[in-house]
Amino acid sequence: MAGTDKTRNQVLGPAPFVVLVNPQLGENIGTAARAMANFGLHELRLVSPRDGWPNDKALTSSSGANWIIERAAVHQSLTAAVEDASYVYATTARPRGMTKEVITPEQAGRDMRARIARSERVGLLFGRERWGLNNDEVSLADIIVTAPVNPAFASLNIAQAVLLVGYEWYKLEAASLGQETPELAALDGPGLQTPDTRPATKEELFGFFDHLERELDAAGFFKTADKKPGMLRNIRNLYARAALTEQEVRSLRGMVASLTRAHERRKENEK
Amino acid sequence: MAGTDKTRNQVLGPAPFVVLVNPQLGENIGTAARAMANFGLHELRLVSPRDGWPNDKALTSSSGANWIIERAAVHQSLTAAVEDASYVYATTARPRGMTKEVITPEQAGRDMRARIARSERVGLLFGRERWGLNNDEVSLADIIVTAPVNPAFASLNIAQAVLLVGYEWYKLEAASLGQETPELAALDGPGLQTPDTRPATKEELFGFFDHLERELDAAGFFKTADKKPGMLRNIRNLYARAALTEQEVRSLRGMVASLTRAHERRKENEK
After folding, report:
1. Do residues B13 and B42 lie in contact, with contact meaning Cβ atoms separated by under 8 Å?
2. N or C: more exposed end of chain B, with fewer CB within 10 A?
3. Tens of pLDDT along A125-168?
4. Residues B57, B164: contact at Cβ < 8 Å?
5. Residues of B in contact with A220 (CB under 8 A)
6. In chain B, which residues have their Cβ closer than 8 Å to the Cβ of A258?
7. What is the least distance, in Å, from the CA of B54 to any CA of chain A?
8. Which residues lie below 8 Å from residue A7, measured CB to CB, with a gap of 6+?
9. For the segment A8-19, what is each residue's pLDDT rounded down to a tens digit?
10. In this structure, what CATH number is given to the domain that contains residue B124?
11. Statement to judge: residues B208 and B182 lie in one domain
């Protein structure tokens, strides 16, 4: 299936960004970039690539998707890499023991398209070569994407995972561009009606999480230090599922602030 | 997306066979076999592989899809490789100047499934690394399969082409096997993974709402009486969207209780 038309320029339209978390080999970054280019994805973000950045092997193995490698952004943490997004998809090979919705690449493609049509910024997370994303990382995402794969041979490398999700995104994008594809089905995703507000950015959401954690710490909510990470993960997961708006995040912060000052009010009432 | 379940045996059910025409590098044969294994394809036919057969590199680069490499059949000509098939799909990157129907991998997936359900033998042709299938070879096929790909970056290697067509085949196969895919789960409801817990009953949820309202009232959160109904509605809406589990409702109640007693803890710490 070789056949790039070199007379065409890259069209860098609105598209999901791709986050590779702790990628190990430059080759894998390059082949992931190539898969992105196949399907019109162009914004690559790297969280602490093991071998540093820039990486010559990433460039040479991208098969000419130079513009993606050259513009890739490096972040020190996953939270920093996704903070401008309103919705984040975590790709995993297998269901996790986590209360989070799981969808297919096909469903993700539809959902991403609907969100981008509403000018949302959305991101796709891919884990390390060896063991994918850890549970904390998954808990920062809104939803899990898992491809239907032969359970007796489920290993997909990063580029292949990018390829499948990118393909499902592009199928619909191509259709909307009038490029000939068959699947012109209704594209209205599971969109929320958000009157007078907008989806919260991850920065706003993480700000709420930090605020809540600080106050719960002060209140002695986390009984033991070893239980705290799991409890925090569960809390993040439940709020992530709610797909909060910016206004709701402000309300939640207001609630937390009120509750922690409740005793002052009580004393006033007793006067 | 690593995650093969090694306790499962390969199921070698009826599936399309894959023909690689004049493959050059053993590595590409191996990675194509790996992509086949991901999606339950298991019969590989090679037409005059350049470097002979067997080929050690094919085996080592198949990432464990040994059964496909070891059973691969070598044919001297494409006609010999497809003679037992009733229908053959030629994959190409671009439309050819040929009067032949062109379909997408998705349409091919549906068509293959329908044919195999009627006990037809069907085959998928993939061309050489450098320049794909020639026109004579395409003319031996019944139909052309072309994936929607960014026209300005259309190069897919053989394994990626196998991956996309295999994926579209397996999506439907998995559904028909009743294999639990996220897609099927989604039809039954919100497709949540709920480990060790169950969805909260409305009674539990409303109990949390009452608790929260009581405490927010005590804390003076609702500034004016006329705003309170709307604020409460927004709060209920956001928690309703999260589809809370019973355990999460208990956590939320625990958080509210902790936060309202935070001052006691603070005083303790000050002692």
Report:
1. no
2. C
3. 999 988 899 988 998 899 999 999 998 898 899 999 999 999 99
4. no
5. 258, 265
6. 216, 219-221
7. 23
8. none
9. 667 678 999 999
10. 3.40.1280.10
11. no
